Amino acid sequence: xxxxxxxxxxxxxxxxxxxQRFVAETKDLDCLMYTYESLPKNWYSDExxxxxxxxxxxxxxxxxxxxADVWKNxxxxxxxxxxIPDECIGKLNYVDVSARCVKCGKRFTGKIQIKDGxxxxxxxxxxxxxxx
Length: 132
Fold this sequence. Notes:
Elements: E1 5-12, E2 19-26, E3 35-37, H1 50-53, H2 67-70, H3 74-82, E4 94-100, E5 107-115, E6 118-129
């Protein structure tokens, strides 16, 4: 059984243009079935990005959720989900991924940039394959 890490990316499909959350798979990281989240490309510049999120606390998802006690703010929590493993920092400039569009059904491969040890931006598509 092959194990992949997953990376969540919110972006339009490079083929049909449908805006959605892709869950791309990669073998370039730990391969321990972790789920990462790529930071939006405007994380540092947008008024609703890092600066805004640094002012908001982390909300509990269920009554005994301890996330609100662990993270200083939403920006720290979001950046933690984008941070790659220590042993990969400085060795990778991008990760190769594979994803599928739920609307048009096309599978594609591409790359997600790594910047300052974090997954950053959208999937840059390279090759399209037939769906299913």
